[in-house]
Structure formats: structure tokens, C-alpha cells
């Protein structure tokens, strides 16, 4: 059983846990905010279940908790950010901030991130861009979990893609999906609880379909849409590695291993200013026309609607924390 605390208190406790494991204030705070926000959105596989994993990576040297990401190359609207083996969140924050500035200047911008770690909820990195009226697309690779089309051994990660589309005076449309049938973190949670997984999610190490979560963790994930999903994963893999020099999925040790290499994975963000094309007025009219047509059918739910509603509720009512994140002392000062 856990305890329910205010959102900012949850961020404070996660920050402390990461700092105690070796993260700097900046690394710990940015990561804590991302994990608590994921939990608030109902995305437990990318939320507080990752705190112990991240702390372990810090203690085993898989992450440099003192890393300070920086822009290492800039050519017009193309930029490259080096995460320097730190967590992804601070580096992606820098990438999207600088990419947004460039997009407003040039109309579009592409920013790559190298030497990075687990990207978390990819679309959340793009929310500041949408707040400035920009469209954002995000791509990330991860440790090998899926085979190539027709293959048997894992090469690609679950390689999420994300998109955010701002709306005038309304919540942005937020799309975020891994290219496997399900996020690997969900299987990891099932394995920890000793629960089965649905057929069609994964293969065991022998390439046989399995409903055993533990066997799935030793095997590989199945892509969405079969070969088409594998091809999409290939697109993401090439995009975030060839442009940034990052590891391909099969070169990175699993996130679910305490000991292993520094993953040095890649992320990429494409930022687009609608004003550089037909104009913001046309963009707003067209997107609202599309949404109105979608909502003609009863039961249609806009992408991101549910997770944002859950986040608002959590900010009002609090977040339930596991006992492992109980405060070390009642007098600890707020951190967020």
C-alpha cells in the first residue's frame, strides 16, 4: 500500500530518491517531474515504476547523474544536443526549447539528441512547443526488443513516435505510441506481479508466441501491424541513429538490467511553425474542421484527452506513492 500526496510532494520525493542515487539537482528534478507526470496520466509503465530502475542505473554507472547536456552542433535549423550519458529529460528539454526557437525563425527545425537514455513519455517533451503554437513530432529508439520483418532476433527497440498539434484555446491533440503491440514496461510490470500477458504481445527466446510475461522479457516484442510496424521501427532507428551517431538498439543493454553499458540512444524532434505555411488562421480552421468531423461519430475520443483529464485530476487530488518513496524525514524542504 502507498500513500496519496500532492503532485508537487510526489515530485519532491522522487527528486530526493534520484539525488540520493547520484543525480544532480537539475537531472533529478527534470526526471522526477517527467515520471510523476506520467504516473498522473495513468501511464504507470513510464511512471513511478521507473524510479527504482533509474536509481539503480545511477548507482551502477549506466547513467551519469552529473551530466550537463549541451548543443554540440548547429547548422541553420538543424541542431544536435549531446545528453552526455545523462537522463533523457534534461537533454530533450534543451532540444525542444532550442528547436522551437529555430522553428519560429526558419519555419521548421530538426533537433537530434545523442548519448541519451530512456525517453519516457515522448509526447510530453513536445508540450512546451505546442504551448508556443508549434506542431511537434518526436522519435526515439530503445534497447533491442523487436526483430526486423521476417527476422527472429531482436534488433530494434519499441521505438516510440509522437506528435502534438496545438489548438486555439483548447488542449492540444497528443499522439504517443510505441511500435510494439504494447510498451515493454507493461510486460515488465506483469512479470513482476506474476501475471500473464495477452496472446500476440510477445515471443519467448525461442521465437514462440507466449503469454508468460517472464518468458517475454527474455524474448522479443511483436510489432504493431506485423511487417508494417517493423518497417516503421526501422525508419525511427535509422533517423535517430544515423543523424546523431547514437547506438542502435542491439548495441544498448536492456533498461531492465541493473548492470550493463550506457545505452547512448537517440531522440529526434521535428518542430513546425504553421505560420510559415498557409498561416495559423488556416491551420486552426482546418484542424477544427477535421476534429468536428471526427466527433460526429459518438464514442470518438481525441488523442490525449483521457491522459490530460487524468493528470488534472491527479494535480487536484494527489498521486499515490509506493512506500519506498516515503520521506526520510518530515522536515525535508519542498523541491518542486
Summarize the structure in short.
The chain has 336 residues and is α+β, with helices and mostly antiparallel strands. The protein has helices at residues 7-21, 25-40, 51-59, 88-106, 127-131, 184-193, 213-218, 227-242, 280-294, 305-317; strands at residues 3-5, 70-75, 78-82, 108-116, 135-140, 146-147, 154-156, 161-167, 170-177, 202-203, 209-210, 220-221, 265-272, 319-321. It has two domains: 3-59 and 304-325, Hypothetical Oxidoreductase Yiak, Chain: A, domain 1; 70-180 and 223-276, Malate/L-lactate/L-sulpholactate dehydrogenase, NADPH binding domain (Ribosomal Protein S8, Chain: A, domain 1, 2-Layer Sandwich), CATH 3.30.1370.60.
Secondary structure blueprint with pairings:
Blueprint: E1 3-5, H1 7-21, H2 25-40, H3 51-59, E2 70-75, E3 78-82, H4 88-106, E4 108-116, H5 127-131, E5 135-140, E6 146-147, E7 154-156, E8 161-167, E9 170-177, H6 184-193, E10 202-203, E11 209-210, H7 213-218, E12 220-221, H8 227-242, E13 265-272, H9 280-294, H10 305-317, E14 319-321
Parallel strand pairs: 3-4
Antiparallel strand pairs: 1-14, 2-3, 4-13, 5-8, 5-13, 6-7, 8-9, 10-11, 10-12
Helix pairs in contact: 1-2, 1-3, 2-10
Number of domains: 2
**In which order are the strands of the major sheet placed?**
2-3-4-13-5-8-9
| Termini Cα gap | 24 Å
Element-level helix/strand string = EHHHEEHEHEEEEEHEEHEHEHHE
Helix content: 25-40%
